[in-house]
Amino acid sequence: MERPAWAPRSIDISVPSVSRIYDFYLGGSHNFEVDREAARKALEFMPGLPKIMQANRAFMRRAVRFAAGEGITQFLDIGSGIPTFGNVHEVAQAVRPGARVVYVDHDPVAVAHSQAVLEDNADADVVNADLLKPREILSSPQVERLIDVNRPVALLLVAILHFVEDADDPYGAVAELRDALAPGSLIVLTHASYEGIPLPAERAGGAVDVYKDIRNPLIMRSRDEIARFFEGYDMVEPGLVPMPRWRPETAPEDEDPYAFSGFAGVGRTA
Amino acid sequence: MAEPDGPEDRLRRFATIWSRAVFPVTSTSSTRPEFEGQLLPLARRLSEALRARAFDQEEAKAVGAALVGAHCTDPEALSRTLDCVDAYLVLYCGHDGDPEHLRARSARLQHAMAAGFAQALRERTLAEQEAIAQAALKAQGVVAQALHASEARFRAVFEGAAIGIGIADLDGNVLQVNGALTRMFGLTDQKLRSRNAKEWTHPDDAPQTWRLYEELVRGQREHYHVEKAFYRPDGTVLWTNLTVSLLRDADGAPRYQLALMEDTTERRLLNLRLRYEATHDALTGLPNRSFFFERLEKALSAGPGQRFGLCYLDLDGFKTVNDSLGHAAGDRLLVEVADRLQACATAPGEMVARLGGDEFVALTTGPDTAHEVDELAGRIMNALLAPISIDGRELTVRGSIGIVEGPAGERSPAEVLRSADITMYRAKSAGGNRFELADPEADARVITRHGLTTALPAALERGEFFIEYQPLVRLGDGTVRGAEALVRWLHPQHGVLGPDRFIPLAEHTGLIVPLGRWVLEQSVRQAREWRERHGGADAAGPLRINVNLSPCQLNHPGLVQDTVDILERAGVAPDALCLEVTESALIGADDDLLKPLRRLAEMGVDIALDDFGTGYSNLANLRRLPVSVLKLDRSFTQSMQQFPADPVDLKIVEGIVSLAHSLDLAVTVEGVETGAQAEQLRILGCDTAQGWYYARPGPPDRLHELALVDASG
């Protein structure tokens, strides 16, 4: 029998979760043995994976500070996962006290964890929703409470779009979000790619296969394909670049070679 | 700004070295300079603990724990930290202390730092494990709650549904039923659940019903849909629209069957009632025409070896009953006849139906109908024997039956019924109160007759008729006096047809009037042509034309005017025309009927009495008829073909001729086939003759030739 739409899927913690694997790479313990087992398998192919995650976090931190510096006080972080440390609300609220942050994830465990973390933060909340259903996100009580869509919003899509297959139309979802946001809004985006990985593609492919095995396939896209997500945005300098090269605060040459895997960019709507 | 190489500067240099060593193995999202900023206070605490008078283990432990707080959770971070402290702490922060003592203190600090780091990491790990476990539990709680709500909704749907729902395992054990289902069956939930689905058989189950069931429980079919009847405990029948679906578990293995039932009992009854009304005659309650056709069609499409027998009954004289006693009485008579007929056909495969009016049919089917249909017809005739009492009158009812019997698969229902109808009419025209068996030849005749009748009007339009002429010869000198016009039909399928084949049909449909007019026109025109060729100077007088007039034409009010018009248009004198009227057409004719003939005769048109001697010849009547010629029927001349001729016949002909002449009538004889005949008739005093001896009917030119021969001879 078909599961009705309003009945949530069950929680099966015997299945690895990308959020908890991510946490493991970042040295966290918000994970279970199944997650660590999958993570260790991927590490066999790409020992530098944690450096990519770290570069993502560092980029996000710079981008959030940039946005806050541009006067933006509302942040919508889709695919937030399990906030171990250095999360958007920590960075944003440090720069701009009272900045409002809504996290979105479709992993119920990640959502439950975020709720616990954000319990005492009146200006931040989390929504259990899917990137592919922008309407559900935008009409959620949390977004309606914290975010005024008539003022610019920083939309964060950090390390999430590479988990959406073309068949599910990620471009359409991104465009729908873009259209819903006020002019002057920013999109903050990172995406995995074979470009920039300091390994032969076959080896990196081994790590990609691990994600396929845990039913969360990792879609590696080319720079051009990633650039298409910015349709309708003006690229903020320096454009779509490897993460360490986006407005670096220290010399990019000092970064780990793995940090240059994939692309990051920020766009602004007219 | 710190004094170069002063204590503060040296402390900072230590922190820089430390951050550079550890930063690559941290997970922090901070930059290295920021990270160094985090390490600087820790370095200061270490520096002070190194030189403190008393060793404070807690201070070093706190520094180790602080590392974990700065997200240096990788054990490698501790290892590098200790390396760094071991190599540089005394060097940069020892100042002027006793190196031996400082080294020992540094070693103890490192031990304490390691312990502090380990403890903090352990606590953080446990806390995070606890947090994620709590989150998982909470998420599961949310899901469980949602599932509970979902199940509650499902239960509400299940219980509240107007449709009957039941779930059984694959062995047929009923596990769950809803309220609608218990109400449909009139059974309690418990009673329903104690039953096995396989017990729910009913004699009306379609043949495939249980095959579909078996396929479903074996997992070979996902669902099926049937109309199915069930017994209720009170013995009544529940009719349902039943849909059964197979439910599989998460691995796709068949587990349960789900039945959805809609109670269609009422609808079915209504349908049956509507069907009954659509297929039965309201007056008699017998099956009606459409129902009968359905059954006949079925009987005719039955398999090899199957036969059918059909009795088509029409009451004799029913119209009289209706006309004299009224329709109500007629209806009661029909009801009584219907009841009696129904009692005649009670065997399986037999049926009686009313086609309409007083027409009924009885059908018998099976392998032995040749015998059965005769018996059936006999029973029907017997059933009609006893008089029917209507309004105190004893009415005798008789009927005519046409029987068709034969093998299935050869004829269509319409063909069979037509044959039965034709046969019934044969029985009726043979006097009624009898049955006749269908005869293919008789059918064919009627069918051809029917075909010709319907083709007649178009045939006239298309010019399919033509005229042949048979010469009339003067017996006295053998000269050609004229000719009789004989119409022919060149039928596209049947070839040339003589007037006997179609004139009665044309009479019947009234087409004879235009056809007769056409014949008259053609013939008169022909007569003029002959006259133009021969002129009027011939000693024998002009060639005359004889045209037959049918009884119907005789009654037609336009006869005189039409004839006058035609003669005038052709410029032919009336005395060139002779109209032949049969004797039977004039029997009992009153003055009104004779008036047109009299008018024509006065104008100079000859009137011949055709086929004289075949009807009831009232010789006295001859006087008042406007007739100038008697045409003696061929039956009188037939006997003269032999030699010597029958003396009685001779006497009769002689008498007629004598009588005719005394009434100033000329005598023409038909059917002259031999010279001896001709001679005999001449001696008897006949005036003119026609027959094969002279010429068969032929095209107009033949007559022209004959006339020429005659003239030259």
- The largest sheet of chain B has its strands arranged as 13-14-16-17-18-19-20-21
From the helix content, strand content and strand pairing of chain A, which structural class follows?
alpha/beta
Approximately how much beta-strand content do the residues of chain B carry? 15-25%
For the record, what CATH class of the largest domain in chain B applies? Alpha Beta
Low-confidence stretches of chain B: none
Tally of DSSP β-strands of chain A: 7
Counting H and I runs of at least 4 residues, what is the number of helices of chain A? 10
Organism (chain A): Streptomyces viridiviolaceus
Protein name (chain A): SAM-dependent methyltransferase
Keywords (chain A): Methyltransferase, Transferase
GO molecular function, one term (chain A): methyltransferase activity
Describe the protein in words.
The complex is a heterodimer of chains A (270) and B (713). Chain A has 270 residues and is α/β, with parallel strands linked by helices. Chain A has ten helices and seven strands. Chain A has a single domain (50-198, 219-269), classed as Vaccinia Virus protein VP39 (Rossmann fold). In chain A, α1 (18-25) packs across α2, α2 packs antiparallel against α9 and α3 (49-69) runs parallel beside α4 (88-95). Chain A starts with 17 loop residues before the first helix and ends with a strand. Chain B has four domains: 7-131, Globin-like (Orthogonal Bundle), CATH 1.10.490; 161-269, Beta-Lactamase (2-Layer Sandwich); 284-438, 2-Layer Sandwich (Alpha-Beta Plaits), CATH 3.30.70; 453-707, EAL domain (TIM Barrel), CATH 3.20.20. Chain B contains 25 helices and 21 strands. In chain B, α14 links the parallel β11 (398-407) and β12 (434-437). The termini of chain B are far apart. The interface between A and B is large, with 41 and 31 residues. Chain A: GO terms for molecular function: methyltransferase activity. Chain A: Keywords: Methyltransferase, Transferase. Chain A: This is SAM-dependent methyltransferase.
